[in-house]
Design brief:
Helix content: 40-55%
Radius of gyration: 23 Å
Distance between the termini: 51 Å
Shape: globular
Number of helices: 18
Structural class: alpha/beta
Number of domains: 2
Strand order of the largest sheet: 6-19-18-15-13-11-10-9
CATH topology of the largest domain: TIM Barrel
Strand content: 5-15%
CATH superfamily of the largest domain: Trimethylamine methyltransferase-like
Largest sheet: 8 strands, parallel
Length: 487
């Protein structure tokens, strides 16, 4: 069954005049201030493409006509492939998808204990997420702490991809990492050339605010263009710390930073798929902690969606929540975050499953609770139809006043599955029947469901030989990365 089509864009905090003013400031940043790009080959490409480059300071200034030329070739529509065609993600500026959790160093286990994440957790949490109907793209929800960290990204690939049917949102550790992941994907698809037709994984390239492209990230970006791997060009600004405290000021920095990366990608390979991505938030001035669940963060993501779409680029938004337990705070933070992004038309709602404590911790229970929250938020975003059949005048006339036989009416039966969202974890019983079933809260119910899934769901998308070959490539690559690690 294909992923259901969902479109947003109803919530637009920026006026048309606001967008023009932001765009004008972005152009001034790119032409007057510039972006620091710490990779010689990229500097040469940008110079040859018409940018003003200071090789000593690594500063690139991008004229407006160069930016506009790059944006003219950046595609607004493309496909991210699933291992199963029904999980193909058809990207445009309207459709909405979700991306799973990412890179937790700790796990809140089903026994209630918080502990360092393990390779077993990565596999189990991937299996668990693979059952969720509201998850469309898989990330590596945990970085295992029981494995060597050099080359960890290859180990993530080798253990996530065999356990999901979704497109895999991956990360790298330099150009060699990208080549190793292409080799592993080729085991699945038969060749590296096939990957260009069906990109079953993508790479996120995280630039740094303010206005900095580290060499290792630029190397990854350039390598992705060589192999046809779509890229999320991401900045993770922190309002009041790494960017201006105002939403508008941070929005300008994000746009300039990401668009510099898009410009480079399009100079290298015109038409290469690029996604404007952020995981930005605000600094809580009372704790000096990053907050991804603050209302200001939601405003920033909604406004960034508008700007990305103004530049005709698909947009990834969404970030972690602040709650440390699957409690009421986690519920309201996740619900607001998902609903704001969905209504704003965020094409990829990032970190939407299972993440606690601003990405530090992954929770089995929260994975299932988040899936429930996303389902409700999407039902709201989807809205409802208004036509002669849904207005139901003839039904109201037929039954007339004081006749409440709607439950058994043919109209109800015909529309029930179209208009009624059925929760899996939410309790709608009153006190007595709820107590008769054990009086369990949502976290209890999520824990029971998670245990059942983990006991029964063992996906097998690849052959034994494919899995073994992917594991071999990952282990060899990690061994090399460990030998190259500075003492």
């Amino acid at each position: 069954m294909a992923i259901p089509i969902l479109r947003g864009g109803q919530y637009r905090p920026l006026s048309d005049e606001d967008i023009k003013r932001i765009d004008s400031a972005v152009l001034r940043i790119l032409t007057e201030v510039g972006v620091r790009i710490e990779y010689r080959q990229a500097l040469e490409v940008l110079r040859d493409g018409g940018c003003a480059v200071d090789f000593d300071k690594h500063i690139v200034r991008i004229p407006e006509h160069v930016l506009r030329r790059a944006l003219a070739t950046a595609p607004s529509q493309f496909t991210l492939a699933g291992q199963k065609p029904e999980y193909d993600v058809f990207v445009d500026l309207e459709r909405i998808y979700t991306i799973g959790g990412s890179s937790a160093l700790y796990v809140l286990g089903l026994d209630g204990e918080r502990r360092p994440s393990t390779l077993r957790d990565l596999i189990d949490l991937t299996r668990l997420q693979d059952t969720l109907e509201n998850l469309h793209i898989m990330h590596a929800i945990a970085v295992p702490q029981d494995i060597p960290q050099p080359g960890f990204d290859r180990i993530l690939f080798a253990n996530v991809v065999p356990n999901t049917s979704r497109n895999y949102y991956s990360q790298g550790q330099g150009g060699k990492s990208i080549r190793d992941q292409v080799e592993m994907a080729s085991v699945i698809l038969g060749s590296a050339e096939a990957l260009k037709t069906r990109p079953i994984f993508t790479i996120v390239v995280c630039m740094v605010s303010p206005l900095l492209h580290p060499g290792i990230r630029v190397e990854e970006l350039m390598e992705c263009t060589r192999w046809g791997i779509p890229v999320y060009i991401e900045v993770d600004a922190q309002m009041g710390a790494t960017t201006p405290i105002t939403v508008a000021g941070t929005l300008v920095e994000e746009c300039a930073n990401v668009l510099a990366g898009v410009t480079l990608a399009q100079m290298l390979v015109p038409g290469h798929p690029c996604i404007f991505a952020i995981a930005s938030g605000t600094m809580d001035m009372s704790t000096a902690n990053y907050s991804g669940a603050a209302p200001e963060t939601g405003l920033l993501h909604a406004a960034t969606a508008q700007m990305a779409h103004y530049y005709k680029l698909p947009f990834q938004g969404g970030t972690g929540i602040d709650a440390v337990l699957p409690d009421a705070q986690a519920g309201y933070e996740r619900a607001l975050q998902v609903l704001i992004n969905a209504l704003a038309g965020t094409n990829f709602i990032h970190l939407s499953i299972g993440m606690m404590e601003q990405m530090l911790t992954a929770s089995y229970e929260q994975c299932l609770i988040d899936n429930e929250i996303i389902g409700a938020a999407f039902q709201i975003t989807r809205g409802f139809e208004v036509n002669d059949d849904t207005i139901a005048f003839d039904v109201l006339k037929e039954l007339g006043p004081a006749n409440s036989q709607y439950m058994v009416h043919e109209h109800t039966v015909r529309h029930l599955r179209k208009v009624y969202w059925r929760p899996k974890l939410t309790n709608r019983d009153k006190w007595e029947p709820w107590m008769d079933r054990g009086g369990k809260d949502m976290r209890d119910r999520a824990r029971e469901q998670a245990l059942k899934i983990l006991d029964t769901y063992w996906p097998q998308y690849l052959s034994k030989e494919q899995v073994e070959e992917i594991q071999r490539i990952a282990q060899v690559a990690q061994g090399q990365a460990m030998r190259e690690e500075p003492a």
